[in-house]
Amino acid sequence: MGKTAEKLAVSFRRVGDDYEKEVIIYDVLGQKRNEWRKIKRETIIDDNGKEFLRLIPTYDGAVIVPSHIDFKETIGHCINRYHPIEIKPKEGIFPTWEILIHRVFGEQEKQGWEYLANLYQNPLQILPVLCLVSPENGTGKTSFANGLSIIFGQNVGFFGQSDLSSQFNTWLRSLVAVFEEINETESTLNKIKSASTARQATVNAKYQQQINFQPFVKLVICSNNDKSFIRANGNDIRYWVRKMKPILPNEFDPDFEEKLRLEAPAVLFRIAKMQLEKPRSRMYFSSEEIQTDALREVVQESRSKCAKDLEIIISEKTDAIGSWQATLTDIWELVGKKYEVSEIRKALKEELGFKSSEKSIRYTPLLGNSRTGRIYSFGTYNEANSDSLPF
Asked: Are 336 and 350 in contact (CB under 8 A)?
């Protein structure tokens, strides 16, 4: 076979036992990109003859190794399924990106740029689940997600609830997986928590062999449900919740995303040159750095019915009589025995931050004579209850 056949053969490859062909596809804006798609051996033979198979490059398998600075198409004798960035860094100005980052991150703008720089410089760095929320539409949530896609190309994927529920989990091999309006279920939350910190994962892609690898996916959740789209507690550093404000009519720019595209080389140059600080936690940022009022609202809404009832009772009693003390049994009676004692203990400790005394001490209950027990103290600060809430 001649040089023409040899040249054509590089548009095909065999990964393990599967043949693939490189094709050009177009998005809704007419932007083209290359993509490898599975093709049957018989189809290749029908189009090019059986001898053509000998010219096709072969690989033992596939791996996923992310890099934007030193990307390698092959690792050993395996094909790398991560996608190289097509945009090249170029020094310049990026006023539209500056507007976007300020709109999304507000007073945490510095951390917003660090988030982008980590995506580019350290794709393996674990980052918090970025949650962009607002009851209204037209706030810039989608523009930010599309901006990430402009920079990082096919390494940013857009997914929905069905993808979290599916047996196929190709979203795991993305650099950034953007989810819109997920359902707050135990299964969904467990998958999100696992993906944000997992050491090992298996990608199940339709019609492809499984790939075992260390996941590096960063999750972005966009939701109009700003308080109960997830459940979180006060100690959870997984979530970075930013509440977005509506874009005013005089701020609307119909060419906004096109300007993001034109400025992408300049913003890529910026984040490539940024000097990053050392990580402050396993998710890079400290919990204080990404604390927001929006997260506190989510934590408040995430409390169990038991914790919410306890909070009301504790607050009412404290307002009425000041400081007071009670055992777990006393509290169980105060809530009308609606909950199991173990449930009350868990809510007091894990959700409301109250600790009982380490040993039994004498106290005076709200009703009755003084007695001995392991007590909780409310409306005051002491050694027995060092984490009590300021009711």
From this structure: no
Determine contact, residues 349/328, Cβ cutoff 8 Å.
no
Sign (positive/negative) of CA torsion 159, 165, 169, 175?
positive
Burial call 63-79: b when 16+ CB within 10 Å, e when fewer: bbbbebeeeeeeeeebb
293-337 pLDDT tens trace: 999 888 888 888 899 899 999 999 999 888 899 999 999 999 999
With CA atoms as reference, report the closest residue to 19 among 45, 47, 41, 3.
41
What does the CA dihedral 158, 63, 206, 19 come to, rounded to 10 degrees? 120
Task: Write the DSSP string, 75-87.
Answer: ETTEEE-SPPP-S
Are 196 and 129 in contact by the 8 Å Cβ rule? The answer is: yes
pLDDT confidence of residue 161: 79
H or E element, residue 242: strand 239-243
Asked whether 221 and 184 are in contact (CB, 8 A), the reply is no
Contact predicate 157/174, CB 8 Å: yes
Alpha helices in 131-253 (DSSP H): 141-152, 161-165, 186-197
Task: Return d(Cα 31, Cα 211) in angstroms, integer.
Answer: 29
- Tracing tokens 């173990």 back to the chain, one arrives at 342
* Structure token digits, residue 168: 């196929």
Asked if pLDDT for residue 228 goes beyond 90, the answer is: no
Contact 65, 75 (CB under 8 A): yes
Global pTM reads: 0.80
- Name the DSSP class of 278: P
Strands (E), 239-360: 239-243, 324-327
Mean pLDDT of 28-37: 80
Please say whether the beta carbons of 238 and 284 come within 8 A. Answer: no
If you search the block for the tokens 């409301």, which residue do you land on? 352
Q: In the structure encoding, which two tokens stand for residue 190, read together?
A: 């467990």
What are the C-alpha distances in Å from 15 to residues 12, 201, 336?
Answer: 10, 20, 65
